[in-house]
Amino acid sequence: MEKINNGRRDFLRKSAVAALALTVVPRHVLGGTGYAAPSDQLTKGIIGVGGMGRGHIEYEGRLLAACDVDKNHLEQAIAQAGGNITGYHDFRELLARTDIDVVHIATPPHWHGIMAKMAAEAGKDIWCEKPMARTIGEGIKVVEAVQKHGRMFRLNTWFRFKDQFYGLGTTVKPLKKLVDSGALGWPLKVTVSGITGYDWKFYWSGEHNLKPMAVPAELDYDFWLGPAPYKPYNPERVHSKFRGYWDYDGGGLGDMGQHYLDPVQYMLGKDDTGPVSIEIDAPQQHFDAVGSWRRITYTYADGCQIILDGENRDKDAAYIEGPKGKVYKGFRSTIPDLEKLINSLPDPEPQIGTFSESVKTRKKFALNESNGHRSCSVVNLGIIALRLGRNLKYDPVKQEFIDDEGANRLINQPMRGPWKI
Amino acid sequence: MKINRIILIAFSLLFVSFSSYSQDKRTLETKVADLLARFPANDLQMTDRMMGDMLTLGEQGLKQICDNIVPAGTGNDTPQCFAIESMSRFLSQKGKETERLMWEGLCISYVSTKKDNGVKDFFMKQLQIVGGSKSAESMKVYLTDKELCEPAAAVIIKSDPASAEIIFSEALKNQQIPCAAVLMNHLGSLGSDKAVKEYITWASSSDVNIKASAYYALAMSGSPDANAVLSAAAKNASYKWEPAASVESLLKYAEVAGKKGNLKASDKICKLIMTECDEETNIQYKTIALNIYVGNHGIDAMKILQTAAAHPNKKYRNAAMQISLKIQGSEAVKNWIAYFRKLSRLLSLN
Q1: pLDDT tens digits along A350-401
Q2: What chain B residue is nearest to A16 in terms of C-alpha separation?
């Protein structure tokens, strides 16, 4: 049944693309001599211009505006951009600009979902920082909004389509070819740890028992909190420290998880699904501040596993391990003549790795709202298990936990007014 | 060898007997202090054991822990917070219903008796995890409190969505309610039509945030009474995006109304938006209107889809092709084949 649908979808897609390209694409859209295609002048605005957001100034697109609830951040961003941009305090004013094509969202994660959804509603294409959303429910809403409004979405991690990633010493492409070929066998176990070249950044742990302090004049703390529960201001909560608190992110797992897990989801062919069980080995977590953990094991319906080894316990761990072979850090492998084998294998489906191309062609970016939501869900599943302090069973089709009302209450979390998603 | 074994067993029994004797002698205060000193547990097994030990302290012991939650900045209650939060999460799992009810009652009593709003808020957060119908009923008195209205609403919606619909609808009649936006957001997410009259009143607020929530709740209600308000708001916004999201809400209304069988109203809105929204800045609304229309009519919407496929805006054309995938069955494929053949013939004639 699934194959029939896919065939029909493929047929429609291919026919439509071919026919439209040949027949009905008007000249003013294609551009060329005498015509200025709208997409030739891609413009952008950035929401959240702290450390991460100011990095987005250099990304593709002509910057017209920036927004931040911290006056100092905003002033720094305007200066870095050469002064010729408009600064905003309220992101909705930036969204209302009709001359901005792409909105970059580089705020802390508790804002990502709301802003991405509103940007889609305002007709913007979206370039969003990782993790895509702070909860699974928010991710689902972003997917719906982006697709319903016909928007293009890019999540800002890139290892599924370019760059050597961490300790692997290769891009993901040859690994994907190897996995798809079946040369490693099936199911596969992927271990993400310091041994295989990763770093979980446990220094993103929060402080306990924070004392209320006066809010600095340059910061609109209430707007910074936005949908997050009100907690008295303390500098530990904001700016470079927010990752250490569950209300805004999820520590090293929230920060680095999607970087590490997204290429694995892609390699394993899990872009439209997720794990069915999540098992943790961790100390009890503080209710406010994120702590460290030792191990998280995700198991998929077909037996594939992803193991996050926070303590680098397994000194001989392979990055990918299957019944027929293993691949280690530095792309070493037990498979003989690996390079020759990989060269003989077909390439995976091509991916669009430049967002302006995606915006121009209206073809999905390599890491888009759909697969981005799924890899972000893996991160959020781990976070929920850690916070609850128990192992969980998950239904990746319904996107809810099985027989666990407590865990299901964390799929959508209450938002402070007036914010909603 | 045998004697050694007997001596060893005897000493072990003596040791166990002494330890139990000394445990029995510990006061409740000491037991609580000992337990709190053990937090945080190092793993899941230890967590389970410690939660079991905490429950064996009984109501008096649990109260000793809860009594020591203090306003932020006035003392270190981290071990107590740790214990209470851990208990709530532990009891939120299946099979702990009896203990959960006991714990819920205790947390409700602390919300009621504690004076500091920060402390009340802390216990309300526990109820967001373990609350049931009793919590929903107990929290409604806080909906008129400026500081506690939102956490109370969060407890009510998480604890008992069915009661939440009635409680929030009733609360919205009070024009002084401090968190009207939140209540309407929750009612909107429930698709409730119990307070349409109140939504309409709140929609006339000058506060854009309240207006946005009222529009959203009206849209989700699918009530015929919502149509005029939302249509006027969208027209007033010139069918462009604005923070109150009036066009978005009108379209959401069209979708809900269509699903409720009011196709006439739904189609009328879709056609209006498809006519009015033809600029680069509001083409996304045209896309949604097409999407809803196709959802309403399936294969009978092919003509409008094929018109969309020839639209000059690439984003809209592309969206039209994606939307056509929603139509089930082979008829759509046949229609597209005929359409593309016709286009090819036209192309070859040129």
Answers
A1: 999 999 999 999 999 999 999 999 999 999 999 999 999 999 999 999 999 9
A2: B321
**CA quadruple A262, A264, A268, A270: dihedral positive or negative?**
negative
ipTM, two decimals, is 0.89
Any B CB within 8 A of A313 CB: no
Residue keyed to tokens 């429950």: B55
Share of chain B above pLDDT 90, in %: 81
Integer-rounded Cα radius of gyration of chain B: 31
- Residue matched to tokens 């046949």: B334
The answer for B 219-238 residues in CB contact with A (under 8 A) is: none
Question: What would the CATH number be for the domain defined by A2-155?
Answer: 3.40.50.720
User: What is the 8-class DSSP label of residue A390?
Assistant: S
Rounded CA-CA distance B58/B48 in Å is 16
Q: For A110-145, what is each residue's pLDDT tens digit?
A: 999 999 999 999 999 999 999 999 999 999 999 999
Listed in sequence order, the residues at least 6 apart from A325 whose beta carbon sits closer than 8 Å to its beta carbon are: A183, A184, A185, A333, A334, A335
Domain ranges of chain A: 2-155, 166-204+248-408
Q: Are A247 and A110 in contact (CB under 8 A)?
A: yes
Q: What is the pLDDT of residues A299-356, one digit of tens each?
A: 999 999 999 999 998 888 999 999 999 999 999 999 999 999 999 999 999 999 999 9
**CA–CA separation, A329 vs A349, rounded Å?**
25
Q: For all residues of chain B together, what is the average pLDDT? A: 92
- Strand-pairing partners, residue A297, are A279, A307
Residues on chain B touching A387 (C-beta within 8 angstroms): 89
The DSSP output letter for A239 is G
- For B313, nearest residue in chain A (alpha carbons): A29
pLDDT at B1: 52
Q: Is A27 near chain B, with CB under 8 Å? A: no
CATH 3.30.420 fits A166-204+248-408, yes or no: no
Cβ–Cβ gap A420/B150 under 8 Å = no
Q: Return residues 265-284 of B near A (CB < 8 Å).
A: 280-284
Interface of B with A in 324-343 (CB under 8 A): 324-325, 330, 332-333, 336-337, 340, 343
A179 sits in which H/E element: helix A172-181
Tokens coding A82 = 């050469």
A209 CB neighbours in chain B (<8 A) are 76-78
* Interchain proximity A212–B333, CB inside 8 Å: no
Using a CB–CB cutoff of 8 Å, tell me whether B210 touches chain A. Answer: yes
